[in-house]
Amino acid sequence: MADEANIDMTGVCSLGSAAQNMDFKSGNEMATLAARQINYHVMGFFPITPSTEIAEGLDELFAQGLCDTRLVASEGEHSAAGICYGASTAGGRVLNATSAQGLLYAMEQLPVQSGTRFPMVMNIVTRAVNGPLNIRGDHSDLMMMLNSGWIILMARNQQAVYDMNIMAPRIGEHEAVRLPVAVAFDGFFTSHQKRRVEYFVSDSDVREFLGPYREMQSSVRPDKPMTIGPYMNDPDLINNKYQLHLAMEAAREVIPEVFAEFVSLSGRQYPLVDSYLTDDAEAGLFALNSAAEIAKDAADSLRREGEKVGVISPNVIRPFPVAEMQAAAGGLESLVIAERADSYGGNGGSMTFEIKAALHDLPGNSTRCVTRIYGLGGRDFYTDDAESLLRLAVDAAGGEDSGARVAASGGEAAAARIKSFDYYGVTPGDKGWSLEPVVRPIPPETTRQDLVKVEQDPETGRLKVRTGSARAMTALPKRIAPGHGACPGCGIFPNLNQFFKGIEGHVVALFQTGCAMVVTTPYPDSSHRVTYIHNLFQNGAATLSGVVEMYRERQRRGEIPADEQLTFVMVSGDGGMDIGMGSALGAALRDHGMIIVEYDNEGYMNTGNQLSYSVPLGTKTTTSGIGPVEKGKSFHHKDTAQIMAATNIKYVGTSVEGLSTDLVKKAAKAQWYANRGHLAYVKLLSACPLSWRSDEKMGTEIMRAAVDCNFFPVYEVEQGITTINYDPEKRKRRVPLADWLNMMPRSRHLTGPDYREQYEALEAEIDRRWQRLKAEAENELL
Fold first, then answer.
1. Which of 62, 42, 38 is nearest to 212 (CA)?
2. CA–CA separation, 499 vs 147, rounded Å?
């Protein structure tokens, strides 16, 4: 950080050659600021905690005309990586940001990017990999990236996030390198916490440091056509990978050069390996990123006690700085390697293998390496924890020269008893504890009270449903118990509880990731009174189809009673039918005996109200801002019900809460078809007051207005025949689109004069779809 003498009264500092501002920002804010100053051509992205704020910040700047980067909101991280790859082949600077499952979902694309040698930058805001689901920070995602052929820079604090992002394009675009670069920093610990930072006052200083993008190959040069990514077998592929190896070796030379240039510009220095108090140290602690900064305080404390300890942390892990690690750790008697990710079954994490290999190649080295897995799932790491690991390093050194405390405890004998590999911070279990239900299961007889009766019309083959009165239906048990953590006014659970009233008998429910999943299953509690399974957005339908097929096969083999009946229901929402659309379509085309019910709250609400494809045109979200340049979401809402109907499944229905017994009847029809081996899909519009910024008491009113303005028509497609169940025109309840939009601050701007074009386009599209739906209802062939 800048010395006080180099700061004037305006907060401008100048340790390097370029003037800098001092501020108080988070890691995500610094990544956003660097991206704006770099002025990337394109950013492909998909929201995932804790990296989402980077795209949100850039979109906000774009909306106000303060950023030129073209942001492309994909339907999943795999596509985001593809967007970035395609953009990078077309000759410009490209950015992405992701975390955890997002990185893994994109993983297939990463070797394509490096293997064809197109540079780009991706921020990896590290987070625990599912399962079970955890959104806190560790390094389990990052470690899976090590063999992808990407350069990986480590940003230990908020300042380093900015600096590494500035240097990353310069490194990756070097003509001897031409590789993609990742900048990795700790989720929440660095991404969301704020610290004092410095950044360049002038964007031109950043852009002059980087220079213009040098196009070496381009997919959009008709005068120079080229083949990108040819089919390549032996003996050629090994040569391609050898060239990638040579590029990574060239990066060993380029990275220090760029770091050195950056010192002149900024006054901040980044060695390949950061060594703290290691010159005379006998014992050391290796840690990555934010934990290493905490460990430095612990090392100071132990130094005051007379212990010769130090801390080692790399600023680059690909290419791994072998010589620098040998210089830093080779003179130690012992080194504790603290890892926030385990390589299960390998007796250490990935950094353990790298460090041991480096020291093994150092002639005569006798440093004892001890590994401790710590901090998984975001478990906090305090100075006391770092002190414990440093004391472990001292103990592991052993011998009379390793400190009086160690000698008193047995010296070399005590050191020998230390495990070379273990976990640190694990809570001991209770062997006497037994698994007990969190909530009482539903007695099967209570779900079959003959309040819902389904009959098939012998002439048309379609179903007729009779239900009890609204009062009588209250006797049916809730599959989801009260007491969950949903926001006030959330429409998810009124919708789901009403839907499940139409389902009789035993239920197995699979919830994709989303608000409904998160607020009902905070370990060790659960709100589910039926069997519940979770899988990620993109694979829920496939997972449940696997459950269905195993159940049917076991029935066929006589392992499960043939007359037993389970109803399998997948619950999706929060944009899950964007990233999960392919899986859902696959399950529909295979026609498994299951129900997909989607609560559509029109956004990725579990990650903070980013746009989903079902959001109406012009709507404001955190990734579709409004301002002088951006006018809200730029394309029309996806019609998932019609997409599912196009797969020719037996039943598709749409409904909203509070529309008499419509939803209950549609659930009953969906169950009838599912239990006869067919997939059924039901879509529910669901209020989200927090993200729609509407009055939490207005949920039912907003839903009714969405139906009455024809934005969300209530209909069903049964065996290919469309029936409109609620026609606001015939009921004389049709209202202007503006009535619905004005109920929600997220869309109220569309009724103003500045957004007339968007309003009229949305109104015309809604009317076009309504007229088409009426035509389908009038003609059985449509």
1. 38
2. 47
CB 156 within 8 A of CB 269: no
Q: 506 pairs with which residues across the strands?
A: 566
CA nearest to 396, candidates 332, 326, 300: 332
Per-residue pLDDT tens digits for 104-152: 999 999 999 999 999 999 999 999 999 899 999 999 999 999 999 999 9
Distances (CA, A) of 199 to 18, 40, 437: 10, 18, 54
pLDDT band at 647 (very low <50, low <70, confident <90, very high): very high
The predicted structure's pLDDT at residue 477: 87
391 vs 412: CA distance, rounded Å:
15
**Cα separation, 179 vs 117, whole angstroms:** 5
Q: Average per-residue pLDDT in the chain?
A: 93
Rounded alpha-carbon distances, angstroms, from residue 113 to 47, 94, 164, 398? 21, 12, 20, 47
3-state secondary structure of 45: strand
Asked whether the beta carbons of 315 and 435 are under 8 A apart, the reply is no
Question: Which of 578, 599, 720, 594 has its CA nearest to residue 654?
Answer: 599
Closest to 604 measured CA to CA, from 76, 114, 142: 76
- Residue identified by tokens 């999960």 is 580
Tokens of 688: 């989200």
Euclidean distance between CA atoms 326 and 441, whole angstroms: 59
Tokens in use for 581? 């659309």
| Nearest alpha carbon to residue 683 among 711, 720, 719 | 711
pLDDT at 435 (0 to 100)? 80
The first and second tokens of residue 293, run together, are 């900064």
CA gap 188, 190 in Å, rounded: 5
Which residues make Cβ contacts (< 8 Å) with residue 297, sequence separation at least 6?
Answer: 383, 386
Average pLDDT estimate for 491-510: 94
Q: Which of 197, 176, 200 is nearest to 185 (CA)?
A: 197
Quickly tell me which residue has 């339908």 as its tokens.
541
Q: How far apart are CA 385 and CA 183, in angstroms?
A: 26
Phi, psi of 483 (to 5 degrees): 100, 5
Q: Of 586, 439, 456, 443, nearest to 506 (Cα)?
A: 443
- Segment holding 456, helix H or strand E: strand 452-456
Evaluate whether 356 touches 367 at the Cβ level (below 8 Å).
Answer: no
* pLDDT over 70 (residue 400): no
Residue 474: HSE in the Cβ half-sphere, 13 Å Cα cutoff: 2
Using only the alpha carbons of the chain, give its radius of gyration: 30
Closest CA to 418 of 351, 370, 350, 352: 370
Q: Label residue 111 exposed, middle or buried (CB < 10 Å: 0-12, 13-18, 19+).
A: middle
For 330-364, what is each residue's pLDDT tens digit? Answer: 999 999 999 999 999 999 999 999 999 999 999 99
Provide the token pair at 494.
């009124």
Report strand pairing: 714-718 vs 651-656. Answer: antiparallel
- Dist. CA 733–CA 638, nearest whole Å: 25
Rounded to whole angstroms, the Cα distance separating 598 from 503 reads: 16
Using CA atoms of 17, 21, 26, 30 in order, give the dihedral in degrees to the nearest 10.
Answer: -50
Placement of tokens 């040098």 in the chain:
214
**Phi, psi (rounded to 5 degrees) for 723:** -130, 125
Which two tokens mark 564?
């037993």
**Taken in order 631, 573, 644, 77, is the CA torsion positive or negative?**
positive
What is the per-residue pLDDT across 607-627, written as a single tens digit (0 to 9) for each? Answer: 989 999 999 999 999 999 999
8 A C-beta contact, residue 684 and residue 652: no
CB atoms under 10 Å from CB of 460, counted, come to 11
* H-only helix segments in 23-136: 27-38, 52-63, 77-89, 100-106, 110-115
Specify the range with the lowest mean pLDDT, choosing from 151-160, 167-176, 435-444, 484-493: 435-444
d(CA 336, CA 311): 10
Look at residues 223, 655, 716, 277 and name the one whose alpha carbon lies nearest to residue 464: 716
Six token digits for residue 507: 């239920």
